[in-house]
Design goal:
Layout: H1 18-31, H2 33-36, H3 42-57, H4 66-106, H5 112-122, H6 136-151, H7 154-162, H8 165-179, H9 186-206, H10 219-228, H11 231-250, H12 260-273, H13 288-293, H14 295-321, H15 328-344, H16 350-371, H17 385-402, H18 417-434, H19 441-451, E1 458-462, H20 463-475, H21 477-480, H22 487-495, E2 509-513, H23 525-532, H24 537-555, H25 566-574, H26 579-597, H27 608-666, E3 684-686, E4 693-695, E5 701-707, H28 708-713, E6 717-720, E7 730-738, E8 741-748, E9 756-761, H29 762-770, E10 775-777, E11 781-784, H30 785-796
Antiparallel strand pairs: 1-2, 3-4, 5-7, 6-11, 7-8, 8-9, 10-11
Helix pairs in contact: 1-3, 1-19, 1-23, 1-24, 4-5, 4-8, 4-27, 4-29, 5-27, 6-22, 7-9, 8-10, 8-20, 9-15, 9-19, 11-16, 11-27, 12-14, 14-17, 15-16, 16-17, 17-18, 24-26, 24-27, 25-26, 27-30
Length: about 800
């Protein structure tokens, strides 16, 4: 069961043989022993053990039915989402770094050596270099170190508080997407949440004023935001917000602007576009107060306010109804915020506490996706001007609802206060309900215990992640491990000084086996747990018999359609032609006899107790298959969204590469010799056997033709004024006469000359992007700046065998 409400142990990622399945069942039962200790009698103990066995036995590599196939597909999908989420995080960090560097380049304030440094940041990975690879002894030391860091989250929690903002992103990459990178595996997720609890507790302890809690841009707030960008958070946003936002985008002409000054400007622009003169009492520009007092402005705003609050209500309804879909981890963090606030500030009101929870849930999780849905891949195209305004206003209203509203800087939002007043009580109820989730400490204790019995705990980690973490730990060792006998200090002392960061080209991922230096691996988990818990050999045999019967019925599904005859099922399996099934059939025949001899089951009632539990298990597995299929369908959409975002980020990096290369070519700073320097509009010509290449004199590339329908479908055209009846006759051509310069022409079929021609510079496009200008106005159409950059890259960047900059 991937997500059982009562569950303590998740079985995802642990396909085992039947004997190890039983070991895990015993482990699960032991974990629950304290909760079930008040029950008495054999039936209650069997029920407890059986319930937990269900969760461990759902996955069976020896069965190939529809459920097994669906579970395998779901596991693979979750693994892909975890891996891709890390890749996106790394790309996002690169894009953030290059945003600031390209801004300087656009302003012509970057020296040539700085250009070369930025270019090196963009270089792709090349073949492995053994000189940078840790030797066997180092691998063992790092395996010990990272097992300790993963298993004892307090060390990482302290480190996250000690680093500065410049260091936090690199550390978060390691923590969120590597150390605890398996986002759907219970042990890693629960360890990560334990780390959050430590970090939040320290944050509350050191914050002197209640009003400043979790507000500033600190490493802690960056951690919380990064956590929401993991797979489960992205899945929730896609499921809950996508339909509402896309529905709003369909009404591209719906203008709900309520800022009086902007509404006044709209009135002025409309009069001038119609060719009329402004009335004498209507100056071109006025103050905000004058615009707010204008009766015509108010007449426009009043119906818009009603409609805006109606749209906001629909968004709010969707969010509140999604309570059970909110990822467990996000709800658990909300619970910690509430708990810590009550302990540290016992005088805090429920409204004040809900304000803190809302600050996390809305400000750092929901609202960024509402304001910029294209960045979260919730929409297929860039929102138009009016929907973009509406989404921003909705986000502000939701934030005012979650927090104590302050209209000091935006007085035009005061008329939306009725929305806040009407919904304050139910949003506070929702925020409190978010916190109503169980803890996982018993489960985590058992997961940790079981981890010692596994021999294949590994991290997929890059060299620089290892070396950077090593360096940060060493830098702060006096705080993290002040005593000589602290395990962390011992491991760091043995590892020695942290190696320097390797060049980007050599920063390859490695597989790092993890194991404990101090904990003894458990060779026989079943025996170990039986010795510590009140679970007998009869319990083990009963569970194992049930396990095998469930496997047999899954392999022989026609038995499930009638009352279970366990003797007949065992005999059929024992006489089949499948050797594996024969072994199982003979084994359960013997087990039935042994269990009957000790009085656990009775042949006279056709083993009714065991048969009933097997039947319940099969019913559960049938329901599970439906849930697994539904979850897979949902995650397929999430995975596609994450891949789309990855392509968008790669496109952004390609834009930067091309622009930087053009600048370096034009300034004489491009690579010399055998390297092939390529920018947008620069062709590479090979010169015979020597393999050397040179940039030829720039040639005109294109023109390339694109239909209106094609560009609109791809989202390049964000807004169009072309009537539907004429779109089929409109096409565009794009050519590149010289590096970094493009000619865009709009043509109408049957006419020789273009209707419109625009000379476009690459740095102008990038500058618009830097200034957060999202569309390029071509009179008849408005082009998405980011999609246009992607189109230019795809069309004009010349790639050779060794890549762009090799």
């Amino acid at each position: 069961m991937a997500d059982r409400r009562s569950g303590m142990v998740q079985s995802m990622g642990y396909p085992q043989s039947s004997s190890s399945v039983v070991s895990r069942a015993v482990a699960a039962a032991a974990a629950n022993r304290r909760q079930s200790s008040m029950r008495t009698g054999r039936a209650s103990k069997q029920y407890s053990v059986s319930a937990f066995y269900s969760m461990a036995a759902e996955q069976d590599v020896e069965v190939e039915d529809d459920l097994a196939q669906a579970q395998r597909h779901l596991r693979d999908l979750k693994s892909q989402i975890s891996t891709q989420s890390k890749k996106n995080f790394v790309l996002e960090r690169d894009v953030r770094y290059l945003d600031s560097r390209i801004a300087l380049l656009i302003a012509n304030r970057m020296a040539l050596d700085e250009q070369n440094e930025v270019a090196s940041h963009l270089e792709d990975h090349v073949d492995d270099d053994d000189a940078h690879y840790p030797d066997h002894r180092k691998m063992q030391q790092y395996g010990n170190l990272f097992f300790l860091l993963q298993s004892e989250p307090r060390h990482v929690a302290s480190l996250c508080r000690l680093v500065n903002l410049a260091e936090i992103d690199t550390l978060l990459q390691t923590v969120m997407f590597t150390l605890y990178g398996n986002q759907y595996e219970s042990r890693e997720e629960h360890l990560l949440l334990t780390m959050f609890q430590n970090v939040l507790a320290a944050q509350f302890e050191t914050t002197t004023e209640f009003t400043s809690l979790l507000r500033a841009n600190t490493p802690v707030s960056r951690m919380m935001t990064t956590y929401t960008r993991r797979g489960p958070g992205q899945s929730y946003l896609k499921t809950v917000l996508s339909n509402s936002i896309n529905s709003l985008l369909e009404h591209k002409d719906l203008n709900l602007q309520i800022n009086p000054l902007k509404v006044y400007e709209e009135m002025v622009n409309q009069i001038e576009e119609e060719g009329r003169d402004l009335p004498p009492d209507m100056p071109r520009s006025v103050t905000s107060d004058a615009a707010a007092a204008n009766p015509d402005v108010n007449a426009i705003i009043t119906p818009r306010l009603t409609m805006l609050m109606d749209v906001a209500n629909r968004f709010l309804d969707t969010i509140i109804e999604s309570l059970e879909q909110v990822p467990y981890g996000i709800r658990w963090i909300c619970k910690q915020i509430r708990s810590l606030t009550k302990r540290k500030y016992p005088e805090a009101t429920d409204i004040a506490i809900c304000s803190l929870i809302g600050g996390f849930f809305f400000l750092r999780f929901l609202n960024p996706a509402i304001v910029t849905p294209q960045a979260y891949m919730l929409v297929d195209r860039l929102p138009g001007k009016h929907p973009r305004t509406t989404l921003t206003l909705i986000a502000k209203m939701l934030q005012n609802l979650a927090n104590k509203p302050s209209y000091a800087k935006e007085t035009y939002m005061i008329p939306t206060n009725p929305f806040v007043e009407r919904n304050k009580q139910r949003i506070n109820q929702f925020l409190n309900d978010l916190c109503e989730v169980g803890d996982f400490y018993d489960s985590l204790e058992m997961d940790q215990y079981m981890a010692l019995s596994k021999k294949d705990i590994v991290l997929n980690i890059t060299l620089n992640e290892i070396y950077n973490t090593h360096a940060l730990l060493t830098q702060h060792i006096e705080v993290l491990a002040p005593k000589k006998d602290d395990h962390l200090r011992i491991l760091l002392t043995e590892a020695g000084p942290a190696p320097a960061q390797v060049p980007r080209k050599q920063n390859l991922p490695i597989v790092l086996p993890l194991f404990s230096r101090w904990e003894t691996p458990i060779q026989d988990l079943t025996t170990a747990l039986m010795s510590e818990n009140n679970i007998t050999q009869n319990d083990i045999q009963y569970m194992e018999a049930k396990a095998i019967f469930v496997q047999l019925v899954r392999s022989l599904p026609y038995f499930s359609k009638k009352p279970l005859n366990l003797s007949r099922i065992a005999e059929t399996a024992a006489t089949s032609k499948d050797a594996q099934m024969v072994r199982k059939g003979i084994k359960v025949q013997d087990m039935l006899k042994e269990l009957e001899e000790v009085g656990v089951i009775d042949r006279k009632d056709n083993y009714a107790l065991l048969a009933q539990e097997i039947k319940q298990e099969l019913v559960h597995l049938g329901d599970l298959k439906d849930r697994v299929t539904q979850e897979s369908a949902s995650l397929e959409s999430v995975y596609k969204t994450i891949l789309d975002h990855n392509n968008y980020l790669k496109s952004q990096l390609e834009s930067y590469k091309a622009y930087l290369q053009n600048v370096r070519i034009q300034s004489g700073g491009g690579e010399k010799g055998g390297k092939k320097s390529v920018g947008i509009g620069v062709e590479v010509e090979n010169s015979g056997k020597s393999g050397k290449s040179k940039a030829t004199r720039p040639q005109v590339l294109g023109p390339y033709k694109f239909t209106h329908q094609q560009l609109e479908k791809d989202g390049v055209i964000a807004v169009t004024n072309v009537p539907d009846s004429r779109k089929g006759s409109i096409f565009f051509t794009i050519s590149c006469p010289m590096p970094g310069t493009f000619i865009i022409e709009l043509h109408y079929k049957g006419r020789d000359k273009p209707i419109l021609e625009m000379d476009l510079k690459l740095d102008d496009l990038l500058e618009k992007q830097q200034d957060n200008i999202q569309v390029l106005d071509l009179e008849y159409v408005q082009l998405s700046v980011s999609k246009t950059l992607h189109l230019l890259n795809k069309t004009f960047v010349t790639k050779n065998k060794t890549g762009l900059f090799s």
